[in-house]
Design brief:
This protein is an alpha+beta fold and 393 residues long. Helices cover 28% and strands 25% of the residues.
Amino acid sequence: MDLAVIGAGVAGCALAAALRQRGWAGSLTLLEIGRGPGGRTATRRSRRDPGLALNHGAPLFNITAQPEPRLLAPLRRGGWIAPFSGAMHSLDGAGQLGAALPDPLSSGTLWQGQPQMDDLCRGLLTLAQQPAPVRLHSSTLVRTLEPLSDGQGWRLLGGEGQALLECRWLVLSGTLLAHPRCQAVFGWPEVPLQQAAAQRGEPQLLEAASALAAIDAQASSNLLLSLSETSAAAWRQQPWRLLQFSPAAQERWGIRRVSLQAMASGRWGVVVESSAAFAERHRQVYGSRSSAAQLLGAAPQPQAEASVIAALDHAVQDALGLSTAGAERQLMRWGAAFPQSPGLAPELSLCPASRIGFCGDAIAGLGFGRVEGALRSAEALAEQLLHRLPAGA
């Protein structure tokens, strides 16, 4: 391939779209560990339950500055995104509702995928199909990055050491393969990017690998509730669709925010996002249906998982005075939901001598730690790559 992109979240899909929108027609493949595109803007779906659709990572995204990312206009025209129309309120430490609070995640212009959050990435991938198609390989774990012997590209290997593909240029749109948390959680003996950088021996790549490995991130343990039309009656009557918890409320209940989401056949979804402190206390507990458990080999912990689900379930009922009786419950844990400053310096986002680049919300700059940062970093990297990539067909 001319270019391989690891990760089909917002940044990876936006990079593909940005390159295609600028006319690049080379061969491009995205490799995604999850079951489909989206990353933290993914929507939880089920083959066994076609009506289930829960935006379990981000219920919206915001744009805080002009000019807006160039990709927003074609996404709007295509109907892939729409203004966020739900009411937003806050909850204080005494359990009283109030006005929305100033929040980096909800300032500026608010958008959501249409009709679900994963349609943001589906729209980006649709934009990326011209002037040449883009391939997406889902449920694909990239475990090892090998520099080619001639220094002109990369070989990617899977979890069993099997060859996945070779590429002239490589982009990492997330930090899983670059951060030591892969060792702590999955028992890997090395950090794949650091191992590859040591093999390559190129100073800029060594510096970038070191900087990415040093980025701290807050986790989030998210409880997903699916309520029938009958059991959701009291939830539907709430005056809000997104509820922020004040610092005092977060300390009391261990919850950062709650979102209400309409689903098919009168059902409703409730997504309870934990506070950073709650997630830190349960750092090693992953949902049994997560990619970490299904593809990365994270050991199942049914008792610990049930305990986290019960704690968040009890907390949200206590905070809101609403029953979750009869709900279907799942746990989704984001191990690096919110990268912490300073992030990767933009000048390290492309290492031309090593033919590798980086994009995503962990790149320092406008929108850092948010979808806006993922979009802007992808567009910036596309500009840098355009005159370096093979021209293609």
